[in-house]
Amino acid sequence: MASRLKKRILRWLIPVHRYLGLTMSLILLLWFASGIVMMFEGYPRTTDQERMAWLEPLDSGQLEVAPSRALAKLDLDDPEGLRINQPGERPRLHAMDSDGQWHSAFADTGEPAPPLNRAQATERAEVLSGTEVASVTLLEGPDQWTVNSHVKAPAPLWRVALADEAGTQLYLSRPTGEVVHSTTSHERVWGYAGPVIHWIYPTQLRELTGIWRQVVLWLAGIGTLACLSGVVLGLMLMRRNKRRGGVSPFRGWFRWHHYLGLVFGALATTWVFSGLLSMGPFHWNSADREPALTEHLGRNSPGAHQASSPSAIDTPAEHGPHELQLHRFNGRTYYRSMADDGTERLHAARPGHDSPAADGPLPAEAVRTALERAEAGTLTAFREQTAYDSYYYAGRSGRIGRDGPPLPVYRADYDSGIRLYIDPDTGSVLQHSTPLSQLNRWLYNGLHSLDFPLLNPGSWFWYGLVIALMSGGTGLCLTGTWLSIRYLRRRRKA
Length: 494
Known about the structure:
Elements: H1 2-37, H2 48-53, H3 67-73, E1 81-85, E2 92-96, E3 102-106, H4 118-129, E4 133-139, E5 157-162, E6 169-173, E7 179-183, H5 185-198, H6 203-207, H7 209-236, H8 252-277, E8 321-329, E9 332-339, E10 344-348, H9 364-372, E11 379-385, H10 396-399, E12 409-414, E13 419-422, E14 429-433, H11 435-449, H12 460-493
Antiparallel strand pairs: 1-2, 1-8, 2-3, 4-5, 5-6, 6-7, 8-9, 9-10, 11-12, 12-13, 13-14
Helix pairs in contact: 1-5, 1-7, 1-12, 7-8, 8-11, 8-12
């Protein structure tokens, strides 16, 4: 009876695995190979500190125009975002409308600023880099290195290629005049070999956000089934009598595929499944999120009608601001300044209003009071945290040489299991951790990157273990790809 049932299962499981393998073997091979690359190289990104280096320091004495006056000249009443910086000789106010388009006015007079032309983009790039310009291209839409959601690029952009050894390309915003991003030849080559392949990130597909997400979800789901069916099939086809030629009944490439599947098949299954979870299928890991918890905390909602001119801002002489953003905290409007070293501070946006000191963080009691006003749960604990924990940590960013999340932070715990990590300098929520997102941290980061504290991620042991496992998964998919090619060749000849 058991033998008959086994034969029936094999009768449908073998063709299922074969055709799933034909569909997914090459994609899985590319995922594993590019995953190894991504252990060391990531998608080219520009930090705020790098962006500040491309700006001139602000002289608050020149900023005598209230934001509302400049916005009136731009025919904008309630912008979605607003910041002030100096990308050239004069300070500018940049405002984003409801369609996501940016507009710019001179912050010293309020008059609309003309868009950056080709000659100005060339001159600006040469001044910043000290290098001649090789070519200048106007991008009406994103290219491969600005399509990522982490790259905040007010389009259209001037892409300026420099004549340097690094093959640097600078991206300058036409409406705002800012340099918003840069890449080098090294970053682009490894970007293609790693994240572009791994994330299925061709520009034309990634622009179609909804379609791209569905493509990745379906491929990851089918890939999970392909690996899982292979694991079940591999176990069912194992020989019990090893004297008859080993555990596998196959020969040649089929035997290699079988053995690799027995050793690395479970890893491949959990790895592809955890990759599926990174896309948040059915938005399951955000289902318990309570937006009301953060409504009293810091966020970049302009409130321009409540802000006076920034000329009265008291800023320290050392590390003065390179950018100002209108910012809301606990129902009040502030200017949020960012210095060239990335330091952020809040400054009163209306004379006579109480404000935190410009040379220190927000008082813990002020943040705690704002949190207690939220009507979405009971605050059970609040403290300053000076070290990372299992849910707020550097993770992959630290392993590829990027700065991790800032420390110290204020940590707030609620009776619902929600945990907030808050920037003491601005009151902004750096991470909103819920019970489901905490579970996703182990199912995704844990299974996909072996990001378990016990393995000491980033250590030599961890690197050796992950490279060995990823190489085994690559070998499994490589044999599967070759068997798929052989099968298709036979079918073509038949």
